[in-house]
Amino acid sequence: MNLNKLFKAMMVAVPLLALGACSSTSDSETDASGSTSGTTSGEYGSSNGGVETGGATAVLSPAEQQRLKEQALRRENIIYFDFDRSEVQTENAEILMAHGNYLVENPNVRVLIEGHADERGTPEYNIALGERRAKAIAKYLQGMGVQPSQMSIVSYGEEKPLDFSRTDSGFAKNRRGVLVY
């Protein structure tokens, strides 16, 4: 049985099977431009040996789409705060919802919530502010059903800055809460 007949038989018998094919064109049949000289695949109308390549995109259920979205959101583990504030902002709700849902679904998982502040203010004030920020995140998660035993909080105040630039944008990066699993 020649290769074309074998290929046709396989395509009829296994229509969903993805096949990889090697070209039977030798180096001597290839010209300098990389195209083959002489024969073409004729009946299939393509220059890659008659094998059409491509893939089907999997269709995901809405529940699976939501699970993947929450998984991506959980990669975001930093919640930013306004200057001298400890209220969770609405733009962080989606991130915290993803973390909260994960923790509710996995009651054996624990999270450490770190509170941070920029360096403006006294060290004592910034420790207290970092603690208020961490507690605000914990309270938000607890409101979603996360058990208090799953959460621990710590405040680093100004001691662990992300940005040392002493600019407004640098200070903004340092005013944060961090969820650590």
Automatic annotation (TrEMBL):
Its main location: membrane. Keywords: Cell cycle, Cell division, Cell outer membrane, Lipoprotein, Membrane, Palmitate, Signal. GO terms for cellular component: cell outer membrane. Residues 25-55 are annotated as: Disordered. It comes from the Bacteria. GO terms for biological process: cell division. PROSITE patterns: OMPA_1 (PS01068), OMPA_2 (PS51123), PROKAR_LIPOPROTEIN (PS51257). It is found in: Cell outer membrane. It holds the Pfam family OmpA. It is a lipid-anchor. Residues 1-20 form the signal peptide. Residues 25-46 have a biased composition (Low complexity). Residues 68-181 form the OmpA-like domain. The Tol-Pal system is composed of five core proteins: the inner membrane proteins TolA, TolQ and TolR, the periplasmic protein TolB and the outer membrane protein Pal. They form a network linking the inner and outer membranes and the peptidoglycan layer. HAMAP family: Pal. Belongs to the Pal lipoprotein family. Part of the Tol-Pal system, which plays a role in outer membrane invagination during cell division and is important for maintaining outer membrane integrity. This is Peptidoglycan-associated lipoprotein. The lineage of its organism: Bacteria, Pseudomonadati, Pseudomonadota, Gammaproteobacteria, Alteromonadales.
